[in-house]
Design a protein that fits this description.
single chain, globular, alpha/beta, N-(1-d-carboxylethyl)-l-norvaline Dehydrogenase, domain 2, 14 helices, 308 residues, Rossmann fold, 2 domains, 8-stranded mixed beta sheet
Length: 308
């Protein structure tokens, strides 16, 4: 039976553990934080039960039986076939973690990071085994949103990237391959572009925060749950994408000539947007709303799987 070591067992690490365990892998979870470890079993059971409620897993107890927890890094990685690291978004800390993993793990075992912002070359450059380091960037939460961005440095072996891609696919995720490094990878660059334009439109008084969100969740988001931007335009013109670009290309070119730019993320802009956000949740309600979101994501994920 294949084994994965989950290094860092917070929100993302916990979700990865569920994904691998559901696929039948042996999972060793590692973390040094007593606070994280204290609530880990309870959270794993809750996440597993959510999957079962939406027919995304058959048996919650079977998932839990595949998972062990340790504060010993060497014990966690012993005999592992794959490593999924989920440490802090700090290049120095990540480099140190990967240095330890590089020394402890068999030389042919892929070492993947869940980082959402640090490219592989930054944290792997000084390592002897840098050829087997990569990014496997998931979407939060990975057990409900299956996309994984697979990205390596120029020195990452193609065979390692292929192996990681196959592993993610085998455990039920949807891996995509990035052919070169880019800050933010692809998903966050797309998300960032939309967020920048949203901030500009709200800051300029074009639309309210609430109506901007409705525009996405009750407009673009409904289509995007099943189609990407290219398939969307393919179906939005009678003769397909070429026809779409002929009709609407000049309109988008005009808008693109004046991009939102980095200033929309300045504190005076973001704080003004937050101040005008009438329906913003108080901190004590965010947890409940997050649970609601996860239930809705699970239902949507289950629906998509049923119609594929």
């Amino acid at each position: 039976m294949a084994k994965v070591a989950i290094i860092g067992s917070g929100l993302i690490g916990r979700a990865w553990a569920i994904v691998f365990a559901r696929a039948g892998w042996t999972v060793a979870m590692y973390d040094l934080s007593p606070c994280v470890l204290q609530q880990l079993n309870e959270m794993l059971r809750a996440d597993s039960a959510l999957l079962v409620r939406h027919n995304l897993a058959e048996n919650a107890e079977q998932i839990i039986r595949h998972i062990s927890i340790t504060q010993d890094l060497a014990e966690a990685v012993s005999g592992a076939d794959f490593i999924q690291e989920n440490g802090p978004e700090n290049p120095d800390i990540k480099t140190e973690i990967f240095n330890q993993l590089d020394q402890l793990c068999d030389t042919e075992i892929p070492l993947a990071s869940s980082t959402s912002s640090i490219v592989t070359s930054v944290f792997s450059k000084p390592l002897k085994g840098r050829h087997r380091c990569l990014v496997g960037h998931p979407v939060n939460p990975p057990h409900l949103v299956p996309l994984v961005e697979v990205s390596g440095a120029s020195w990452t072996r193609d065979s390692v990237l292929q192996q990681a891609h196959q592993i993610y696919q085998d455990i039920g995720q949807v891996p995509v391959r990035l052919h070169k490094e880019t800050d933010g990878f692809v998903l966050n660059r797309l998300q960032g572009a939309l967020l920048a334009e949203a901030l500009r439109l709200v800051a300029e008084g074009v639309i309210s925060v609430e109506d901007l969100d409705k525009t996405v969740k009750d407009g673009l988001g409904l289509r995007w749950a099943f189609m990407g931007p290219f398939e969307t335009i393919e179906l939005n013109a009678p003769e397909g994408a070429a026809d779409y670009f002929r009709r609407y290309g000049p309109v988008f070119a005009k808008m693109g000539a004046q991009p939102a730019g980095p200033d929309v993320f300045d504190p005076e802009v973001t704080q003004a947007v937050i101040k005008g956000w009438q329906t913003r949740l108080s901190s004590d309600k965010i947890k409940n709303r997050t649970q609601w979101r996860n239930e809705r994501l699970a239902a949507l994920y289950a629906h998509k799987k049923s119609v594929q």
